[in-house]
Structures are given as structure tokens and as C-alpha cells.
Amino acid sequence: MHMEGEVVLASCGGRSLHWDASHSCCVLFEGELVGEGRDAPELRLLELYRERKEGFVETLNGTFAAVIWDMACKRLMVANDRFGLHPLYKAFVDGRHIWASSPKAMLANPAFPAHLNPAGLADFLGLNLFQADDTLVRGVSEITPGTFTVCEPDGMRTLRYWDFVLSEEENGRSARSYVDGAVDVLRASADRRQAHGETSGFLLSGGTSSRVALGALDRSRLVGLAFGAPNSSEAAFAWQVAETAGIPFRFHALGPERLKADAPRGIELSPEPLSCIQFDGLGAWGMNDTDATVIVTGCGGAAVFGQPARPREWANEFTAERHFEALRIFSDEDLSQLLQPEWYREVEGAAVHRFRDDLARCPSRHGIHRLDYWALRQWTRRLDSRLAHLFPDGTRIRPLFLDNEVVDFARALPPSLRWGEKSVYRRALLKIAPELASLPATTTGGLPLSYGLRRLRYHHRLAAWRQRFSRLSAGTPVASRPLGAAPDYASWLRGELRDWMTELLLEPRTLDRGLWRREGLSALITDCLDGGERAGSAARKLFTLISLELWCRRYFDTAGAAVLPSDHSEAR
């Protein structure tokens, strides 16, 4: 097979090529390796390439995208990390193979056709993230995590060097030994992320993962960071965790006054579209007074180890459609009222169909395994990791659970130790930080994580009966524990953001795009402004549309112009 076309690399961050001493091999590297000391990562990659050739990437631990050019054999290799945390995109246009760190870099090329991808549109409206390896731009796809591409004079091939394959069978190893092993690998991962003695920020939440991570880390070198609604249980639980752990804590209260300014900035910083609700924490990092250049997170913990609050019998009730329904933003009925007919025909049913296909990519008979596989390969990659781009330049984001040793250990767990009462994840928390397990958590509906499943079920059933009884007897439900960190976004859109929303979504520039039906947009805005029971859902949908319109204006409407921030440049 002959290799047709030329290769173009669109580089992010202004990084330059690093040559070896003989000037015969060079590397372009973006990201960070952990556990490799303070030496330049480019030197480590060149050393591994000399030793292992195409196997150089298999042992790399970190967040990265890398390109190696071997002049002697005219071989170009493009690789990303196991989990796709450092995004890398590809396209083939006019005889050119293009790789870039964002679809925006593709659109900056005047020769690139700037067209909306119906599959990406369906995903973003359905889930606020993209599925498979698609993007919002037709012809641009994200490189699959854990793969590398080899370009040589006689052809191009793409190989997968790693996948998140979970154990299907039980074995004779004791649960206690697995718990001990989990604690050991978590502490080793924590040591790698705090290797150089600097004070690190730590993203705190009210759930399980941040407590497990906090139990493994050296707390004397941590500052807790969080943002959210100040009166939510998520904020209250995070405060309790920080106080009990004995670490300083900085909390940034969200408010509408920042969102209008943060939304366009977030659109510019993130490599692909996200709901602008996700950008409301941007102001927190500008006000960060910790001087921390490293932020450790608990991102992906439940996908890696399994969800301890999920009983084993839940697997028998799992269906792709049921879980998609719990995650979705717009239903097909919503979209039929909102989109122009020709676009609705393109996206009808596409998001749930693609969700089902994504789950089927996991080679497991267990529904829960397929869901954890999807969560790590899609949710963590396409949502959680993208938020890392919102932090100031020079800030390094280090997810503790997305470590090669940790994930390889966790994916070998027998199925019975990933779920429910026997969950190694839960039992590791009880061993590593019992004082944090005794605090209430959002994961368990406001009850301590130390409670067993039977006790949790009892409390949840009791709360449900109290609600039912109160409706029957008095017509007003009994107040329950307020959970979650989401502010009342509908009230923001009814108040300070009302003019911004209506002008953006209903002005001719938006309607002339040919996507939306004016009456559908107006009805959705009315649902939000009326303040009824549909207001919260309508607000979430409206912020999705606002983000999409801001992204289209910033990149599609100016495709081929110099609209990219300074950290994106194209290099041959």
C-alpha cells in the first residue's frame, strides 16, 4: 500500500521539535509523564524509541500526545496516552493527513471545509459530549485512546497498544489481599503525583472518589479546592471532608455575574464544545491564592474501580436505553420541536443508537462492565479531562486514579469485588481513611459511605415512604436532604442573564444558521421564564444551545481566519 498525501501537524502550546544528538530522530511532545523524574520527557521518549521502536509508548505513564520522526527510515509515529486525556484529532483533506490538538486548528486552515457533523450534533444535544471518536466538525475525528499511528513510505497503519478490558471471572484470591493491593497502588500513584515536594491543589467534592484519593495523598502538602452552589450539600460535605482531613480549603461560590464572561472564554480554552455551565468555575482559578501549579483530582475513580453504591443485582436491570435516559439532555420529541425538519431527520434517534454501539464495544457479558468501560473511554475522556484546559497556563492536572499501575490493578478485580457490599473501592476507603468514610456523601444520598448496602436501602426506602405519605396526607412533600452542587440556573436565566440569552438565541444571526425553528426556541425560553416544574430542565437545555451557538460563531463563522488563541499554531 502506498502512502498518499503529505502530513501536517497542528501543534498546540508552541512546543518545538527536540532532536537527538545525531540529528536523525526528533520528537514533539505535549503533556506530562509521571514517575520519570525531572528530566525532559522528550529525552525519555527518544531513549525508549531507540530501545523498543514501535513499543516505545506502551510503558509511558501520564497525560500526553507525542510525535516521533525517524529520518533514517522515513517513519512518523503519532501516539496518545492510554486514556485519551491529552486530546489529539485527525483529518484527511485534499491529499493531506492532518493531526491537531483541537478541531479549531483544522478550521483555521482556509482549505478545510467547515461543515457541521450531524453525528456530533446529535451527541452534543443528547448528552453534552461526543461519542465514539466523533466531533462537531465533519471530517474531524479524535484519535482513539491507547493507539498509535505509523506513517511510512509504503503505507499508514493504526494500532491499539492498550484497552480497558475488565476481568470476567472470579478467582481464589482473598478480598483482603485485593484491598491491601488497592491501598498500595493508590499510595504509589499519590507519591508519583506529589514527587517533587511542592504544595498541590486538590479538587474536593462530596462524593467517594475525592475521599479515596485524599486518603492516599500526603495531606501536609495539599490545599482543598472546590466551587459550586454555596448552600448545596456538595459544598457542605466538601467543607466537612477538608476540616476532618485537616487541610486548608478554598471554596468559590458560583454566580450569574461571572458566567456571561466565562462562557466565551471557556469556548476558547476547551478543545471541543462543552456546556457553558461547565465554564462557571473559571473565575475560581483566577482567584486562586494558593500558588499551586499542580492540581490533583479524583477524576475517573468510580469507572476504574466500579461503583460501590451499585448492588450486584443492578446488572440484571441494566439496559443501554435506561441509562441513556438518565443522562440525556434533549429527547427526540424535544428535537422535533426545536430543529428544522432536514436537520431533525439527520439526528433522530442517533444519540441513543450511538450510545448503544459504544457500550457494545466493551467485550464483556456484564452490563456494569460495559457502563464502566464507556464511562472511562467517553465520559472521563470527553468531559472530565477537557475541564483541565480551563486552568491557567502552566497548571498541571494529575488525576490520581488514571495511573497505569492503578488501572491495571483495578481491571483485574473479579466482578464481585467491583460492585456493592464487597466493593474493593469502598473497603479501601474504610482502610485508608475511615474518618472520611464516616462523613455524609452525595454518592450515598447524604448518608455516610461507611454504611452497608442494606442500611442504605433501608434509609432510602424510608425516605421514599415519608415523601409518599406526606403527599397523601398533606399534599406537600417533606423536606429531604438537598443533594448536588448545581445552582438554580433557571433563576439566573430569568434574572441577570435573561437579555443575554434571548438576544443570543433569537437574533437573526442564530436563526439564519438554518438549524433552529424560532417557535421551538421561543417555547423553550418560555418554559424557563415561567418558573414552573419544567424550568430547571429548560435551563439546562438552553445553556447547551448557548454553548453551541457561541462555538459556531467563534469557529464555524470565522473558519479559515486567524481566530485561534495564541496557544494554537500550525506547523509542517
From TrEMBL:
Domain of life (superkingdom): Bacteria
Domain Asparagine synthetase: 184-435
Reactions the enzyme catalyzes: L-aspartate + L-glutamine + ATP + H2O = L-asparagine + L-glutamate + AMP + diphosphate + H(+)
Keywords from the named record: ATP-binding, Nucleotide-binding
Any one GO molecular-function label of the UniProt entry: asparagine synthase (glutamine-hydrolyzing) activity
Protein family: Belongs to the asparagine synthetase family.
An example Gene Ontology CC term for this record: cytosol
EC number: 6.3.5.4
Pfam families named among the record's database cross-references: Asn_synthase, GATase_7
InterPro entries xrefs: Asn_synth_AEB, Asn_synthase, ASN_synthetase/amidase, GATase_2_dom, Ntn_hydrolases_N, Rossmann-like_a/b/a_fold
Organism of derivation: Thiohalomonas denitrificans
Gene3D superfamilies attached to this UniProt entry: Glutamine Phosphoribosylpyrophosphate, subunit 1, domain 1 (3.60.20.10), HUPs (3.40.50.620)
Pathway: Amino-acid biosynthesis; L-asparagine biosynthesis; L-asparagine from L-aspartate (L-Gln route): step 1/1
GO biological process terms, semicolon-separated: asparagine biosynthetic process
Enzyme class: ligase
Protein name per Swiss-Prot or TrEMBL: asparagine synthase (glutamine-hydrolyzing)
Domain (Glutamine amidotransferase type-2) ranges: 45-108
